[in-house]
Amino acid sequence: MLDNLELFHANAHTIDFPFHTHETFNISLIINATFNTKLHDKLLQAPMGTISITNPNEVHATPCNAISGNSFFTYYVCPDMLASLNNHQKVFFEDKIIYDQKLFNELFYLCHNFRANLIAFEKRLTTALQFLVSRYAKAKPISKSTQRLFQDFINTSSFETFSLEKTATQFGISKYKFIRLFKQETGLTPNNFVLLKKIETSKSMLKQGYPILDVAIASGFYDTPHFYKYFKRFTGVNPLDFQQALLVV
Fold it and tell me: Which of 48, 51, 190, 212 is surrounded by the fewest CB atoms within 10 Å?
């Protein structure tokens, strides 16, 4: 059930995460200071000892304390897993900050002992997530039908050789209008959207063990320094550490 689970431990992280999305639920344990999450219409502040959640494809940014940094642990959980714990119904968290000391303590213990076979990590994590879903989740709201100007473009483009000027011309609008309309529809600038698509492609290749340089070029980055810069900017870890972490679990 825990296939594709990712765990991320940030210790005194000082670099802001720009606006981005994930295809997973982000379930973050706030270890120190106040954890800020920017959504398109609000700023959420999660105190130390709470659980902060963002839903899949929810555009958000995470500004970090530039002096002392922020420490947190995040479980990246695929939507299908939580749906399976909810009678196969889609899950949505309307409340993004959860105050539950017992649940926090269990998830905190598990995140520090996930390599210990004796603790039955998978069973205990599944039980904890089952409680999280049953207690705090709601059925995913049905979004109203709206015009999606860029949906076909998003679904069919590879983005490795994306050009803002050429793409805007294809739509018959200026690049400035394209940026404004694209952000209005997706919540992201075209450049950040393309970068995220490239990073998702690179993560898949890294998991398959491809060499870093091959991954960088195949994902549409100019070279490895360029790849390292943006991969760490959006994920908080460099590509080599990400790949090596897969080998030690």
Answer: 48
Q: Which helix (H) or strand (E) holds 36?
A: strand 35-38
Q: Are 85 and 126 in contact (CB under 8 A)?
A: yes
Sheet holding 70-77, edge to edge: 6-13, 70-77, 25-30, 51-54, 97-98
Quote the pTM value: 0.83
How many residues are there in the chain?
249
Question: Where do the domains of the chain lie?
Answer: 6-139, 151-248
**CATH number assigned to the domain with residue range 151-248, chosen from the 4 options 3.40.50.300, 1.10.10.60, 3.50.4.10, 3.30.470.20:** 1.10.10.60
**Residue 36, strand partner residues:** 45
Distance CA 58, CA 222 (A): 28
CATH superfamily of the 6-139 domain: Regulatory protein AraC (2.60.120.280)
Label each residue of 55-80 as H, E or C: CCCCCEEECCCCCCCEEEEEEEECHH
d(CA 48, CA 113): 20
Q: Which of 124, 138, 132 is nearest to 1 (CA)?
A: 124
| Spatial contact of 217 and 209, defined as CB atoms under 8 Å apart | no
Q: How far apart are CA 227 and CA 18, in angstroms?
A: 16
